[in-house]
Amino acid sequence: MKSLKTLLRYLGPYRKDMITGALLVIIETGFELIIPILMADLIDIGTAHHDIPYILHKGGQMAICALLSLVTGLLYAKFAARASYGWGSRIREAQFERVQEFSFSNLDRFETSSLITRMTTDVTILQNAVNGGFRPMVRGPVMLIFGLFLSFRMNTKLAFIFVFCAPVLGIILFYIVNKIAPRYLLLQKAVDKLNNTVQESLTAIRTVKAFVRGEYEQEKFDKVNKTMSDTSQDTFKYAVLNMPAFQLTLYTAIILIMWFGGNMIINSSLQVGELTGFLSYVFQIMNSMMMISNVFLLLSRSLSSAQRISEVLDEKIMLTSPENGETNIPAGSVCFENVSFKYKENAKAYALSCVNLNIKEGQTVGIIGGTGSAKTTLVQLIPRLYDATEGSVKVGGHDVREYDLKTLRDGVGIVLQKNVLFSGTIRENLLWGNPHADDETIHEACRAACVDDFISNLPQGLDTMLEHGGVNVSGGQKQRICIARTLLKHPKILIFDDSTSAVDTATEASIRKSLGNIREMTKIIIAQRISSVIETDQIIVMNDGRVIANGTHEQLLQNEPIYREIYESQTRGGEFSAGKTNQLEKA
User: Fold this and answer.
1) Same domain, 356 and 248
2) Using one digit for the tens of pLDDT, what is the confidence trace for 291-346?
3) Pairing verdict, β 398-399 and 465-466
4) Are residues 122 and 17 in the same domain?
5) 3-state class of 574 per DSSP?
6) Which residues pair with 336 in a beta bridge?
7) Cβ distance 38 to 58 under 8 Å?
8) Could you tell me if 214 and 255 lie in one domain?
9) The whole model's pTM is what?
């Protein structure tokens, strides 16, 4: 319930619509409650005395009440729809903004499919709860209270039947709601798993086809789909008991009222019109209880969704800008001082251990090492994608924690190992690096990234549309577009995370030459090929989260056996010895 109250704060300007809708429901209910009184008078007075003018008069009043009830109901629908969909829109917006603030540590806590479900399905459930449940939420209690009051006023003896029937229905409905509530959370988790399987399968559809694993993926999907189906059936087998419980209680009440009411009519202590009007209240009171039970069902599911949404909104941001953080990076130097890092606090082993490095401004530095040696982890600490667990990382002489995050990340350009392009034109993708770049600046960056020839040969040039993920360009072209995009930032520090692996050696050499002309920029290149880093000012060799050697190519060849074996294996086709393979796996 606390989560739902938290989300109600996002009503904002739609709070007035919600209040107006509630007032309209109360007015609508009032008109409906008047109709049985008018009906009783019409039968007992007008029909009994054959008074046609009186019958027409009361009939007209009933018609007016029904018409006004219809009008207020339609107006309510308008305000409720505006409030529910406006509220849902604001919650989705708040979630999306929150996710944009997440650090990598925060994102590690949520699966992508789960975040998508929370922004779509869970928000839709809340919208439906308001749009379809707010009316009975207000109408049910109002109709129950006033219906009981008017029924006792009409005939006290018959009204006591409710004293017996209502608690029975209440106990049954409480049992149903109590059974369903925890199952809704399981149902939403099942939706998460289904979405995750679908997303993974569609993202890797080319790999699935290449390995002819369609049947395996189908079996995997069938498994999670069946799990969701079974969870849904287990949940709703209790929900469907609502209607039978309502009908059982309703018809029991009607039989008892007809029995006792009929005897009272025979004994002349009750008129037919009163019994007819009383039966109308029976239906209204029982309907109100049914509405209340449906509200509890909707509320149970809404609470599960509200809890999941609140987990996103209440997630503590792990990395934030300090107050009055530095807004200027004085130099592109990088220094690691006794840096150790692990991804989770309770992790037993460190991903990085006791790293000490000093990279001067304008230097070009290469990093090589086996798969899993934490090369990517090391460079991710520079723009504060993660924070060091121990020690400090300094950029321009200042600890990275002292910088305003936007300033730091604008000053550090990183071409990630996994290249990402967005749906849109090549120009729109490049402008991520610098939204204000003109065509000449864009072409200059493209020339440096050796992607200008490819773009110029396209019929629409920079305005060529890229499909989702850039699937209509090759891996090498995608890498070079990403490099050009990063160069447009004009960063003080440029990091290549194995981002030239898909280009040929001649193109890679041209890119290195272009980058070498930018003297004031510090370049850090992660690579698997020694040829990619052989001409750098210093080469860092990593193994198992540690820096095991650091120096120029010539120094490492003379003093570092592991580096020498890597070099010989790549230049002469030599092989690692079994012992060295365990120390540093060739990627």
Assistant:
1) no
2) 777 777 777 778 778 888 988 998 888 888 888 888 899 999 999 999 999 988 88
3) unpaired
4) yes
5) coil
6) 357, 393
7) yes
8) yes
9) 0.70
